[in-house]
Amino acid sequence: MTYVTNDREGSMPQGTRERGRPRSFDTQAALDRAVEVFWRQGYEGASLTDLTAAMGISRPSMYAAFGNKDDLFRRVVARYAEIDMAYAREALEQPTAYRVIESFLRANADALTRTDRPAGCLSIQGGLAGGSDRGRIARFLAESRLAGERALAARLAAAVAEGDLPPGTDPDALARYVTVVSEGNAVHATAGADRASLHATVDFALQAVPRRPGVVG
């Protein structure tokens, strides 16, 4: 799961410079194109030339609309969390803990292998390579993923309190387990694993999810 956080060394930009001439381009469409570039090339691999060419704008327009590369990337991760990770929020609304986990892992496997998106996960791919930022982007992405894990843990803690999960279930450890499965599938998807293979992994993972005796699903 990827949630946007406000940790900064440069927190999420609150917007951009609004003064000057009105923009002559669709900022959301440009942002979606930037998502593709960062997803395929990572933060370090995506040059300003790559980004502005894909977005169809000049560097001054990019700076005016989105800030610098760091700011743009944070906007991209927010867009990714809003659009591409919507299924994670929807999974939390499922009525049982088992269905929360199953819904998330199944939808995640599908998302990782979409034909209209790069394989894998932006939040994993984006910060794999270290560089001149001294690990700042990698830490930002790790914190974003941790925020999603905490949201899942909170939902599972509620399931324990409600008796939906067996007494003694550790919601933090269970949420971490689910996160490890989803992140591992992301790495394998990037390496070329197909959708069926990812779902086979999910099949095994679901066998480890604790359930209250007598409860199915």
Largest sheet: none
Q: What proportion of the residues is helical, as a percent range?
A: 55-70%
β-strand percent reads under 5%
Poorly predicted parts: 6-20
**What sort of overall outline do the alpha carbons produce when their principal axes are compared?**
elongated
Radius of gyration: 19 Å
Mean pLDDT, nearest integer? 88
The N- and C-terminal alpha carbons lie at a distance of: 22 Å
- H and E order: HHHHHHHHHH
Structural class: mainly alpha
Work out the helix count. Answer: 10
What is the number of strand segments?
0
Organism: Actinoplanes couchii
Pfam families: TetR_C_13 (PF16925), TetR_N (PF00440)
Protein name: TetR family transcriptional regulator
Keywords: DNA-binding, Transcription, Transcription regulation
Plain-language structure description:
It is a single chain. With 217 residues, the protein is an all-alpha fold. The protein has helices at residues 27-45, 48-55, 59-66, 69-83, 86-91, 97-112, 122-125, 136-161, 171-190, 195-206. 62% of the residues lie in helices and 0% in strands. The protein starts with 26 loop residues before the first helix and ends in an 11-residue tail after the last helix.
